[in-house]
Automatic annotation (TrEMBL):
Protein name as catalogued: Gluconate 5-dehydrogenase/2-deoxy-D-gluconate 3-dehydrogenase
SMART domains hit by this protein: PKS_KR
Pfam families, A to Z: adh_short_C2 (PF13561)
SUPFAM superfamilies: NAD(P)-binding Rossmann-fold domains
Family listed: Belongs to the short-chain dehydrogenases/reductases (SDR) family.
Naturally occurring in which organism (per UniProt): Alicyclobacillus macrosporangiidus
One GO BP: bile acid metabolic process
UniProt entry keywords in alphabetical sequence: Oxidoreductase
GO terms assigned for molecular function: oxidoreductase activity, acting on the CH-OH group of donors, NAD or NADP as acceptor
Domain (Ketoreductase): residue spans on this chain: 12-211
Length: 255
């Protein structure tokens, strides 16, 4: 055994929820490049098929699992099926998420439920099912995808920021609960990344200027900017890191 850290994920299996596009797909590709097989979970089979093809192009096994993270029965069955048919999950990237941006006074209770169900209930359900298995094996890496809005506010992010703040807290709880079981639970928290979730929102030139003015790096993030942090938190190199929030934000929160 080397005294130096390794970032290799050879022989591992990762589950990436929402791994079919955007940041999730980039992380799935990054993990595959580092040596991991990857199961991607989402609702749309066509984007799932394309994601699997990208993983396989990197020489790793890719599997698409169709499930809605808000539905308990579908999550339980999906995790059970991956473990039975593909293998034990070593790495969980709890990434599936959504945003509805509106002023508070226009925010419907349905909007609130929709965002909280996906971003918080989904993370809880998938995390619970995977962590119970990791705990039985005494090892595992869990990466919950939060956001800078888990730490700071901005207009129109009522449910989203509440859900991401919840993810940061739930990460800290799971980290303390499972560190002694050999499981690392951490958060990865990006600022604005150019993906299907943000494309329309970033079309407004004034808004884009405002966002860039808050970003010391002077540019938006690209999905590939999140890859390295995901590989690090999934690798043995992060074995003593528990309950950390790793911001990938171009310096947004350094100000
Ligand atoms: P996208 O909208 O591009 O991708 C979202 C992914 O989540 C898709 O794969 C989608 O697949 C899946 N998904 C959504 N709802 C569900 C559901 N109910 N069940 C299963 N899968 C679901 O988003 P991003 O890539 O931009 O965001 C990914 C994560 O990163 C989110 O948690 C987001 O909050 C976070 N984030 C994004 C930032 C950004 O600027 N883009 C910044 C900070 C954090 P399908 O539709 O097939 O189900």
């Amino acid at each position: 055994m080397s005294e130096f850290p390794t970032f290799s994920l050879d022989g591992r299996l990762a589950l990436v929820t929402g791994g079919t596009r955007g940041i999730g797909l980039a992380m799935a590709r990054g993990l595959a490049h580092a040596g991991s097989d990857v199961a991607v979970l989402g609702r749309d089979p066509e984007s799932g098929r394309l994601a699997v093809a990208e993983i396989e192009r990197l020489g790793r096994r890719g599997v698409f699992v169709q499930a809605d993270v808000t539905k308990e029965d579908q999550v339980v069955e999906a995790v059970e099926r991956i473990e039975r048919e593909v293998g034990p999950i070593d790495i969980l990237v709890n990434n599936a998420g959504k945003n509805i941006r509106k002023p508070l006074t226009e925010y419907g209770a349905d909007d609130w439920d929709d965002v909280l169900d996906t971003n918080l209930r989904g993370i809880f359900l998938v995390g619970r099912e995977v962590i119970r298995r990791m705990a039985g094996r005494g090892r595992g890496k869990v990466i919950n995808i939060a956001s800078i809005f888990g730490g700071v506010g901005m207009p129109y992010q009522t449910a989203y920021a509440a859900s991401k703040g919840g993810i940061v807290q739930l990460t800290k709880v799971w980290a303390t609960e499972y560190a002694s079981s050999g499981i690392n639970v951490n958060c990865l928290a990006p600022a604005y990344i150019r993906t299907p979730m943000t494309a329309a929102w970033l079309e407004d030139p004034e808004r884009l200027r405002d966002i860039l003015s808050r970003t010391p790096a002077g540019r938006l993030g690209e999905p590939k900017d999140v890859m390295g942090a995901a590989v690090f938190l999934a690798s043995d190199a992060s074995d003593f890191i528990h309950g950390h929030v790793l911001y990938v934000d171009g310096g947004w929160l350094a100000q």
